[in-house]
Amino acid sequence: MGKPRQYSTEERIYLIEVLRGLAITTRHFWVNIIGFIPGLRKLGSIPGLRKLMKPETVTYQWPEVERPISPRWRGRHRLNKREDGTVKCVACMCCATACPSECIHIVARERGDGVDEKEPALFEIDLFRCVYCGMCVEACPCNAILMDTQEMRFCEYSPDKFVIGKEKLLDW
Amino acid sequence: MSAAWAVAVFTAVVSLAGLMTWGERKLASMIQDRIGPNRANIRLTYHPWPFGPKRSVNLTAIGLFHIMADPVKLFFKEDFIPAGANKILHTLAPMISLGVPFVVFSVLPFAGPLHIQWRDFTADELYLAWLFSGQVLHLSDYTLKFVVADLDVGMIFVFAVSSLAVYGVILSGWSSNNKFSFLGALRGANQMISYEVSLGLCAVGLFMIYGGLSLSSLNNGQGELLLGVIPKWGIITQPLAFILFLTCGMAEIKRIPFDLPEGESEIVAGYFLEYSSMKFTMFMFGEYVEMILLAGVITTLFFGGWQIPWVSPEGIHVLHWQLLWSDTFLSGLGATGIHILIALLQAGKFATCTVVWVYLIFMIRWTFPRFRYDQVMKLGWQMILPLALINIMVTGLILAFTRGWLNG
To answer: How far is A17 from chain B (nearest CA, A)?
Structure first.
């Protein structure tokens, strides 16, 4: 650690710095107060007053007001379907191998209809273990697992409901 | 002696302190670009028609219901006393912390003396003299004083009683059997006793100028005009003492930047760490009452108390120009009516000034970081104490050479 900074005389008197600090907080306080009064908010359409009347708060009144989510935002997983409606996954285990938190559990079986060789008999994701890193989506060779449901609220009464299976993953 | 004023002042202070619990959090959120408490609500469900669906409306009242929600929550929490604690002192400490500041309000005059010439009072009606403080000059003359107890040693009483608050701090910290609490109590005792000295010395200049210790005489003195225009308020005559007094006052009520006894980041919550439920509430509430007290004392000493500059019960006087109330449309009220109106205005001025100072104390609390312990001691003993002494000497010299001129 270096030597502490030497304060200038102006700073050592302290009272000037006190007033400067108070000016900043007072400005924030009154700008936000004025911006929250509905009648005064209309004054914000006057160009000169726009900056003064605009509250600087960035709070979203969640859950009444939803925060806009980017399309790339990683939410709950889903499994992609083919055009005929069957599951696109070929149970290659790439996602389960890539997963750093080992939350994907796949049991493969032979696919009888000749569209492809394999399909998952069991495809389970433990949402408690998942860290939402998106590695599984990166690893998937056939674009079968996706995280674009934009779903962030999943509440259940029992912890075992958070291990979601194929039905839930295909239901989107 | 004046039970009615005691009830009135107590009610006003408690209401304001209750509002402040909400006001401080809302103000802090506004400063920090947040929205603040707005979730506590009352949901009213009603049937708009005898048939058809129910409707409900959610009243949040910009978070004002938090004032009700917080005490209810705290009231139903467990009242916890640690194993090694001294039960009697542990229970006594919050009572001292909350009770002491209330006592000081009894000497703060909140409006000017009201001279009533009404009619002959019968002997039965003289209970008024017991209900409201004042004195009966004649059975038809009654001077009503807007103060619970007009003590001749008013300011000494303020210092004496407010210094008892240190017992609340040290007893709570010591009796809790917790090292963090004890550290907080030691810091609190040290800081409060150190600043007590300077606090008293800052006010000495005012006693010299206005010639009295009683708060009524201080207020009467501040009603005069310097050079016929400038109100002779404490802040005009004693600007340095005002800054020092404000600093010492902030240290006395343990507010940021002098909140070492609490110091959340260092010693958890300091002296009231081991308190929960309503005892914790009493400490917090006592802190808010102390804040109102400091605002009230600053108003009384440095901002003229109830004195509205240039306005008196007779009229408005500026230099040689004057406007008498009896010449205006107010004359219909009669002399006593005008006097009551002015007394109301004066009470309003005192209340407004107090609330403004409470706001400024809030602003200071949410602007500054905490002082270090050595900085607090250095500021108190090496800066404020010498400056207060110099202030007394300079005031004395000026008074000695300009008596007659400054005192009119």
So the answer is: 10
Helices and strands in chain A, H and E counts: 7, 5
- Count: domains in chain A: 2
Cβ atoms of B300 and B219 within 8 Å: the answer is yes
Nearest neighbour of A29 by CB, restricted to B30, B243, B364: B30
Q: Looking at the structure, do residues A84 and A160 belong to the same domain, yes or no?
A: yes
Stretch B64-77: mean pLDDT: 88
- From B35's Cα to the closest Cα of chain A, the distance in A is 7
> What pLDDT is recorded for position B294?
92
Measured CA to CA, the distance from residue B382 to residue B277 in angstroms comes to: 40
**For the whole model, what pTM was predicted?**
0.80
Q: Does residue A154 fall inside a structural domain? A: yes
Does residue A122 lie within any of the structural domains? yes
What is the DSSP code (8-state) at residue B41? -
Pick from A25, A55, A61: CB nearest B366:
A25
Residue range B329-341: mean pLDDT, rounded? 76
> How close does chain A come to B24, measured CA to CA in Å?
12
Question: What does the DSSP assignment read for B249-303?
Answer: HHHHTT-TTS-TTT-HHHHTTGGGTT--HHHHHHHHHHHHHHHHHHHHHHHHHHS
Domain count, chain B: 1
In a domain? residue B386: yes
Host domain of residue B316: 81-402
Q: Which residues of B touch A57 (CB under 8 A)?
A: 33-35
Across the interface, whether the CB atoms of A25 and B363 are under 8 A apart is answered yes
Look at residue A53 in the predicted model and tell me its pLDDT: 66
What is the residue range of A106's domain?
78-170
Q: Tens digits of per-residue pLDDT, A44-56?
A: 666 666 666 667 7
**pLDDT by residue (tens digit) across B106-164?**
888 888 777 776 655 555 566 666 566 555 555 556 677 788 877 888 888 988 888 88
Cα–Cα dist A172/A104, whole Å: 19
- This complex has an ipTM of 0.77
Question: Does residue A60 belong to any structural domain of this protein?
Answer: no
Pick among B35, B256, B364 to test the A interface (most A CBs inside 10 A): B35
Q: Which residue of B has its CA nearest to A56?
A: B33
Using the predicted structure, report yes or no on whether residue B193 has a pLDDT greater than 80: yes
In the structure encoding, which two tokens stand for residue A162, read together?
Answer: 């958070």
| A26 Cβ under 8 Å from any chain B Cβ | yes
